[in-house]
């Protein structure tokens, strides 16, 4: 049995490190990056995996389908329910928001599992995270937010 944490377990652990959540949400919300894909790239680097161009493309395709079909719509509903809504009881709104949040989190967990399945086997020790982030960000969007990716990489615990 391997001591390498699953992508999900690793993501939960690093998410609580100082500055990671803020940097990650900036990449997602302000820079248009797919946070699960960014986490996958960082996890691959940290666990000695080196996805080739085909694996990165497949990961982006998988992330895009999950983002467009499940994650982004659920996130939009959850964010809509965050604020008060006229003629909508606050307790009912919060209860529904909590349920949507749980489903959104489950969708993200399943996306991370799908991405993990696309990762190559480890082929050595840990690799630098920043180049791995650049590689997936380039495939994901036409603009690569280098400084935001660098800040995210710097905040990851070792």
Descriptive keywords:
single chain, mainly alpha, 70% helix, 158 residues
List the helices and strands and how they pair.
Layout: H1 7-15, H2 20-30, H3 35-46, H4 53-80, H5 90-118, H6 129-140, H7 146-155
Helix pairs in contact: 2-7, 3-5, 3-6, 4-5, 4-6, 6-7
Brief rundown of the structure:
By secondary structure, the protein is mainly alpha-helical.
H and E string:
HHHHHHH
The largest pleated sheet is described as:
none
Share of residues in helices? over 70%
Low-confidence stretches: none
List the total number of helices.
7
Total strands: the figure is: 0
Structural class by secondary-structure content: mainly alpha
Radius of gyration: 16 Å
- Distance from N terminus to C terminus (CA atoms, Å) equals 22 Å
Morphology call: elongated
Strand content: under 5%
Quick check: average pLDDT? 96
Give an overview in words.
- With 158 residues, the chain is mainly alpha-helical.
- The chain contains seven helices and no strands.
- α2 (20-30) runs antiparallel to α7 (146-155), α3 packs across α5 (90-118) and α4 runs antiparallel to α5 (90-118).
- The chain is elongated and about 55 Å long.
């Amino acid at each position: 049995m391997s001591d390498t944490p699953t992508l999900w377990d690793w993501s939960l652990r690093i998410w609580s490190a100082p500055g990671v959540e803020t940097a990650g949400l900036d990449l997602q919300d302000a820079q248009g990056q797919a946070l699960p894909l960014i986490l996958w790239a960082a996890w691959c680097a940290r666990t000695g995996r080196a996805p080739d161009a085909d694996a990165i493309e497949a990961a982006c395709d998988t992330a895009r389908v999950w983002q467009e079909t499940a994650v982004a719509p659920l996130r939009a509903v959850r964010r809509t329910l965050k604020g008060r809504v006229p003629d909508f009881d606050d307790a009912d709104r919060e209860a529904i928001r909590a349920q949507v949040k749980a489903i959104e989190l489950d969708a993200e967990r399943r996306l991370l599992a799908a991405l993990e399945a696309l990762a190559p086997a480890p082929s050595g020790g840990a690799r630098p995270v920043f180049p791995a982030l650049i590689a997936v960000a380039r495939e994901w969007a036409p603009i690569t937010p280098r400084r935001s990716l660098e800040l995210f990489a710097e905040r990851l615990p070792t």
